[in-house]
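agent: user wants the structure for DNA polymerase III subunit delta from Leifsonella bigeumensis. delegating to structure tool.
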Amino acid sequence: MLARMSLWDELTGQPEAIAVFRAAASGVTQADAPQADSMTHSWLITGPPGSGRSNLAYAFAAALLSPGNPEGDEATRRQVEARTHPDLGVLSTERVIISIDEVRALVTSSQFSPSVGRYRVMIIEDADRMTERTSNVLLKALEEPPPRTVWILCAPSEADLIPTVRSRVRSVRLRVPALADVADLIARRDGVDPALALRAAREAQSHIGMAHRLATNEDACVRRERTLQAALGIRTVSDAVIAAGALLEMATEDAKAITEERDSEEREGALRSLGIEPGGTIPPALRAQLRSLEEDQKRRATRSLRDGLDRIMVDLLSLYRDILLLQLGSEVEPINLEILDRLREAAGAATPEQTLATLEAISTARRRIDSNVAPALTLEAMLISARRRISS
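agent: tool returned. relaying tokens verbatim.
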């Protein structure tokens, strides 16, 4: 059995940020009122994907909610991990955007007095998914917060939030964790071989969540390998079109695997709560509730597909980054070290200028997918730039 990790142990590679939040939590527990120089009622945690933004938010929440213990007591930690603590409010969307009604409900909840502790902690993951109108609903809560409510927002960067929200939060920036730190975390937490953990951390480019998936999920490894092989096999426009179809199919299958089982469980649970037996007829008066659930599931499927496509393009960026480094004679270790011979072959089949154009095409494709451009056309346009000369 794996040893229980401490409150802050999963925040690998972030010593400065941990020190800030530990000091703030200590200030809360050492006096009846927070210390002005260390604690504030609203925080913004920013950093690149996989840097551990939400992990830090929940660790800080557990420290604030633990009675008299900034390191977190076991019972509170379990409640925070399960999102069942009565003084913890969480907004974590699986859709493309956070709706205004979701934020209104959280703002209303933030006005309640703490039930078991001295604070209520409200966490919004992916705060960058709020529209301006929705952000303005949150703004009112940040401007006039109850004295015992602490807000923690998470976003990739400060620029992802409107200026008026940014001006009312204290920002803490996370950095990209070192490969060794991520590998050590994966090895300790997930109990995998250190060599496998290091390879997963390298191929995930220090993204903690993706490193965990690559180290523990064989399907994720196969998907990544197929992605790289499809790109390396492109020689003609026809090859690019075929590869685009294959990548879209992989992303779609990945999204379905993530969402289908959960969708079925949610529907069964909804039917039970409405008193409808499995296979029974749904009364007309209740169909609107199920339609709402189905619409939410469709939005989640859309986001899941976009996330899958983005993971594919991040893997492709690592591939062409390695090719470019070889073309330029760099001594930097490749991310995809296990296919070094294929990388060298690809590096000799194009110029650095062509590889840079491919990298730019991938970045453009990521923006287009985020803007809801048709995935098939986006992938085709991207991969046409990846054609290589046939070696003589």
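agent: one observation worth passing along. Residues 113 and 297 are 33 Å apart (CA to CA).
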